[in-house]
Design a protein that fits this description.
It is built from 19 helices and six strands. It is of the alpha/beta class. The protein starts with a strand and ends in a 12-residue tail after the last helix.
Length: 398
């Protein structure tokens, strides 16, 4: 049974901040959202633990200004599990860690096969955590006691896990790898908003014609506006497949729209006027979207042999070499170098294949210095070898 204090008012908040400021060592932090239930990704519970202070569960729906908490713990290392998921919600509340330790990312660098919080706690401490409420609607009020206990357990053991991983990273010579990775997570900028976010509609590939795409766009926007207004996840109002079904059915009237069996969802009938007006608006649009939009996405590797044979040979030579280096380092290949980075470098490498030039290209693609140190020479050697592939030699099977 974990001990925790729920903080819901100004007096409790002040006392918690005083206690946390007097605590020692790093601070474990976690966030619970209502993903899949609410439109926003705001925090509905913020859990904080510090040795000699205890576990505090802060309710952001009743606490407006979190700056006293920032002051209380702002000079300490903040320990997360999967920090990239929690940082945006914390920043929305004005909470910014000066330096972080990520137990999930650290576990990946160490080559742990399972990196979920429960698995990492069990591997490092021998403690089994129940994960019964990970997908719960944390906007629920009041929060059930079992949920609160689950949330408290998410941070209670995190500092002990961190200490074990710190020792393992030092033992494997990966302390600097981890420092750079953690800083990269902290420095990562939010992705810019997509120019045409409605094109993410699942099943949109079945829609043909610019007029139909305009209807799909209008329906998506109408759902988005209503979801934001109600703070409900869009898919819980009308699923993607229902919007696409309405486009494909091409109803002639509001009644015909209501008669479409596949047009379902909790708001499909209660907001029927809204959806019909969107269809009418899409049909009347003079700004028709193109069938396809330009993209800097590379072709799938299976098409490279025909479209860019040299790149295909480079990738086929470098990929197993990078995988072998990752195996030597006892970590997943994607943590040594992301597949996308290697593909882009293989597609358009520097004209002069030197370690310096490849290192500069990797830096431009976002690779960290430690990744470059571990892979640049390997990639150069592989690319050079691909210039004279043995499978082109007579008598050698391809």
């Amino acid at each position: 049974m974990v001990e925790y204090i729920v903080i819901e008012d100004a007096a409790g908040f002040h006392s918690a901040c005083v206690a946390l400021a007097a605590g020692t060592g790093p601070v474990a932090v976690d966030v619970e959202r209502a993903s899949g239930f609410r439109y926003s990704q705001r925090a509905y519970l913020i859990q904080v633990f510090r040795r000699e202070a205890g576990v505090f569960l802060f309710d952001p729906t009743t606490i407006g200004d979190f700056s006293p908490l920032q002051t209380a713990i702002g000079d300490a290392e903040w320990v997360f599990h999967a920090a990239s998921q929690d940082l945006p919600s914390l920043r929305e509340r004005g909470l910014e860690p000066p330096v972080i330790f990520d137990t999930e990312l650290g576990s990946r660098l160490l080559g742990h096969e399972r990196v979920g919080l429960g698995a990492v706690v069990e591997q490092t401490l021998g403690i089994t955590l129940a994960k019964a409420h990970s997908a719960a609607d944390w906007s629920t009020r009041p929060l059930p006691a079992s949920w609160l206990e689950y949330a408290a357990l998410d941070v209670e053991h995190l500092i002990d896990v961190r200490d074990v991983l710190v020792a393992e990273l030092e033992e494997q010579g990966k302390t600097e790898f981890a420092r750079q990775e953690f800083q990269a997570v902290l420095d990562r900028q939010p992705k810019p908003a997509r120019e045409d976010p409605w094109r993410r509609l699942s099943g949109l590939h079945t829609v043909r014609g610019r007029r139909s795409l305009a209807v799909a766009r209008a329906l998506w926007q109408a759902r988005e506006d209503y979801a934001r207004e109600q703070d409900i996840a869009p898919g819980r109002l009308v699923p993607d497949r229902a919007l696409v079904a309405a486009v494909l059915a091409d109803p002639s009237s509001k009644q015909a729209l209501a008669a479409i069996k596949e047009f379902n969802g909790r708001a499909s009938r209660t907001q029927l006027d809204r959806w019909w007006n969107a269809i009418v608006e899409g049909r009347a649009s003079t700004d028709l979207p193109p069938d396809r939009v330009p993209s800097d996405t590379l072709p799938p590797p299976r098409a490279w042999a025909d479209r860019n044979p040299e790149a295909d040979r480079r990738l086929k030579a470098a990929r197993p070499a990078v995988e072998a280096r990752a195996e030597e380092l006892r970590m997943p290949t994607e943590n040594l170098l992301t597949p996308e980075t290697l593909r882009r470098l293989s597609w358009a490498p520097p004209a002069d294949l030197t370690v310096e030039n490849v290192s500069a290209a990797l830096t431009e693609l976002g690779a960290r210095p430690w990744q470059i140190d571990q892979t640049a020479q390997v990639i150069v050697d592989s690319f050079v070898a691909s210039l004279n592939p043995v499978d082109d030699a007579p008598g050698v099977d391809s």
